[in-house]
# Entry
Amino acid sequence: MIKDITIGQFFPGKSFIHKMDARAKFSLMFAFIIIIFVCKNLVSLGIVFGFALFMIILSKVAIKTILKSFKMIVFIIILTSALQIFYNSKGTVLFDWWKIKVTDIGMLTALFMAVRIITLILSSSLLTYTTSPTLLTDAIERLFSPLKILRINVSTLAMMMTIALRFIPILIDEVDRIMSAQKARGADLETGGLIKRAKALLPIFIPLFVNSFRRAFELAYAMECRCYKGGEGRTRMTAMKMHIRDFFAVFVIAGLLAGVIWVNRVFVALI
Amino acid sequence: MPVLETKNLTYQYGAGTPFCVTALDDVSVSIEKGELVGIIGHTGSGKSTLMQHFNALLKPDKGQVLLEGKDINENKQAGLEARFKVGLCFQYPEYQLFEATVYKDIAYGPANMKLDGKEVDARVRQAAEYVGIPPDMLEKSPFDLSGGEKRRAAIAGVMAMRPEILILDEPTAGLDPSGRSKIMELIVNYKKTTGNTVLLVSHSMDEIAAVSDRILVMKGGKIAMFDSVKHVFGRVSELISMGLFVPEITNIMLKLKERGVGVRTDIFTLEGAANELLHLLFLH
# Structure
C-alpha cells in the first residue's frame, strides 16, 4: 500500500532523458511547466500532453508505476474538473436542474483542467523518476548559486535537501516495518470511522517520530565525526558537463513553446 | 497433522519494476506442534519474508500457508485469526514501543483481541513474568528502559497474546552477552512452560545449536536443509559455502580431530564438549 507512492522516486536507466545533464533537465522541466500554462485551448494542450507522453515513453519508465502514482491524486483531478463543470455558465446549456446548469463549454473546461493537472504531474514526476537525488540536489545547488550574493547559504540548503530526499525511502521503509509490527499485534488500520482510524495511527506515528529523532542525532554526530562544518568550499567528485543532447533538448522545448503560441492564435481560446 | 505448513510458497518483491526480487521460491515446509525450530540463512535468503507469510502479513504470489490445516489467506477472518495464533516479533522490536507505560504497551496486543479487562491484566502480568520484567517496572515509560529491558518488554507484548506459535526474528541482535543469554533463557523457559511452538531466526550458530529441535537452513529463497541439529551441522562444507558456519565448540572439535585427537565432531554445546573430553581422559 504505502510502497505504491512512487512520486519522488528514482528509477535508474540509460535513456536519453536519464543521460541529460541534470541542470538542463531541471531548467527545461521548469520551462515545460510554464508551457503547460501558456496553453489556451485543447489543441495546444493536446500537443503538450502528447509531448509529455512521448517523454515518458522515451524515458522507458514502466507505465504501470506511473499509473500507480496517479491512484493517489485521482480524487484531486476529479474534484477540480467537477468544479469547472458547475461554475461555468457560458455556452449552450446541455442539462439544467434546480440551480445546476451544465454547458458544453463547462464540460470542455473540465476536460482541459483534468488534462492540465495530469500533464503537470507527468512532467514533474518525470524529473525525479529519471534523476538520482544526488544529481538533482547538485543541479539545484549550481543553478541557485547566484543567490550567494544575497547571503543565502546555498550549499547548506542543498545538503539539507539531499538528506531530506535520501531519508524519504528510509522513512517509508520504517513506516512499513512499524506497520507490520503493529499489525502483527493485531492493529486494525483498515476499518472503523475517521476518529477510530486516526487513533489507530498513533501506534505507528509515535515510534516513527521517536526513531526519526534518533536517526537525525546519529547522522549529525556521524557528520561531525567526519569534520563536516557546513558545505562552504566543498568540491564535487564529478564535474557536470553539458553535451550536444542537452542543447538539442533546449531547441526542442523552444520549438514546442513556439508551436504552442502559434496554435493558441489559430484556434479559439477556451480560457 | 503439522501445526504450520507451507505449500509451494512463492513471493516476489516489487514485481513488475526493475527492482524485482524473488524472495521465496517454491517453499514447502511443515512444522510440528511443540517443536523449537531454529532458522538460519545468509542475509537476503528469505528468512524474514517467510516469517511474514506465517501470520498473513504478506500474501503469497503462489502457494498456500496452512495453519492447523486451514488456509490463512482464504478470507479476511482467517488472516486476522492467524495474527493472534501466530505471534511474530520482528527484528529490533523495541522500535515499535509507543505507549505511555510498559504495562499499556504489553496490553496493546491483548486489547486488540477484544478480551475483557481482567483477562488482559492477567496476560500482561504473566507475559511480564516470562520475560523477567518486575511489577514496578510496568509503570515506567518504555522509553526510560535500557536496551535489553526494552527488547524484553517488546517480546512480552507479543507473548501476551498467547500465540500458539511464537516467531522471533533475531531476538538477540545488538545486545550485550548478558542480555543475549537472558533472552535465550526466557525463550527456552517459555517453550517448556507453555508447550507452544517456537520459531527462532538467528545469525548465531551457538544459540541455534543450543536450543533447537530442528534447524531450517535457507538459501536464495529456497529451503536448503531442514533436519536435526546433528545432521545440519554435520554438513560443514555446505554450510560454509552458504556463508554460514558451525557452532564455535563444534569448530574446536573439528580442529582437534584434524590434529589427530579421536573426538566426536557431532557436539554442539559446551556441556557436550566437556563430557566428551572427560570421557577421553578416562579412556587414556
